[in-house]
């Protein structure tokens, strides 16, 4: 504003003080221009500060400031010149020389900031390479401050003196350096994401300002009716040639640090951005996957990076030339960031799939250990694992296969562990395993299926496979238990008193039916009661899943059938030697047995008892 007032002084003015004021004003304007150009070349200034400087410099240039032939000498002798300033209006950043006076202010600012971004990315990759090398040579990750100072004393390109390598090589035999290298990789990934998150929106805001300035200049040319100048560099071309390759390089670096290598058969190409000339041990470690905890942390960072790339890609479309503009002949069907975004998406999907594999593997080993050691079917662990993954995964639909296989693996390991626990143990262990399976089938599978449904669309098929494994184990264990109680109940039906010759004139033996309730019936009914107590203690009133009948009823029915078959077998073995009195008493006892157990017996077993009773009635000489 002050310089505009001074411009009213005409060049033909003879008043010396006014001429002096005009010269001083021009000098101040040139100095202000240099200061604004210095601000455009800074990487620490905020985006708002950059945009303000672009606006001020644009207004200043419209005033047509006279050129000073001695300006270069004044700048070279100034003690306040910027470190990146090589000549008047020329800055060197990361080996790239840019003359800001050859471009409009906004475009010049974009070129300068893009050069800073490229230099920062290069430094980040070199720093990661240097850090991993120094860790391999014996330095610890916690001494990074010392490493930075020591690297300046070494040879060029971050390599150390061979004698120093010989001194430190024995230290590298310790496994601690491996953990430090893996941690350095995760930190490098996080650092790369931070660079993207800070610099990409910054560059886009400057590019949008340059695009708006480009439109204004084109409108002025059209309004004046003058011919347009030769083709000039556009903000979109700067992004295409200067920024996009650097972004791709940084994404490749983050992917390599976070993944190490691509899974087999994935078709993904992971570029090794550093460490190509490293020793074999270090190179193998750099290409190995990160541990579960670090992989989970890196996965969240890469997901945030992909989100930034997606938003930036949409914003970048605003920079594309419109039809009728000089550069509109080049058709750009894809955004310059699409390739980087695709690589980032693949990296996130790979890490999240590994996250699923790690989580289910840990869960399966823990469940197998608890099942083998204590006979516990820990479905709650699977439920917790699914809920954790549901909260942490950003792309669950891409991990559906790993989720389905992981759930099936955990259930299978639980079943194998329970089978191992029951092996060489008795009926109590089998019944305990059945109780665990019944608890999972009745109360836990519904919750597990719901959580699986949040992660995959194939929840019904997964549930079917898991139910088959659980029901297969439950069926095998309960069938073994039923076979055991059937044989045990049958062994309680021994009728030894039928084999003894009785003399009615003498005292009757203690097991004679004439002395009260028959001992064989007491033992048989007690066996049934004991079976009921066992099942009730372990399973309560639970209903068996496929049959819709309580476990108690099934167990009592099996024991009752074992008793009935055992008694019938005992009687059939002795039917030729039975006395009339014995046959009569047994017929009555068989009728009592039928009336007592008929609600638990199958029709075939009842027919067997009825046939045996009729045979006894015939033997006793009375009607049925």
Describe this structure in words.
- By secondary structure, this protein is mainly α.
- The chain is built from 20 helices and three strands.
- The chain has helices spanning 2-6, 16-40, 47-61, 71-76, 105-136, 144-153, 162-168, 176-224, 235-259, 280-286, 292-316, 338-374, 379-392, 400-422, 427-455, 459-491, 519-539, 551-574, 580-597, 603-620; strands at residues 85-87, 90-93, 96-99.
- A three-stranded antiparallel beta sheet has the order 1-2-3.
- Helix 5 (105-136) runs parallel beside helix 9 (235-259) and helix 12 packs parallel to helix 14 (400-422).
- The relative contact order is 0.05.
Query: What composes the largest sheet?
Result: 3 strands, antiparallel
Structural class: mainly alpha
Radius of gyration: 44 Å
| Mean pLDDT rating | 82
The protein's oligomeric status is single chain
Distance between the termini: 129 Å
Shape: rod-shaped
The amount of beta strand, in percent, is under 5%
Helix and strand element order: HHHHEEEHHHHHHHHHHHHHHHH
Helical content (DSSP H or I, runs of 4+): 55-70%
Total of DSSP H or I helical runs spanning 4+ residues: 20
Q: How are the strands of the biggest sheet laid out side by side?
A: 1-2-3
Record field, number of beta strands: 3
Low-confidence runs = 146-172, 502-513
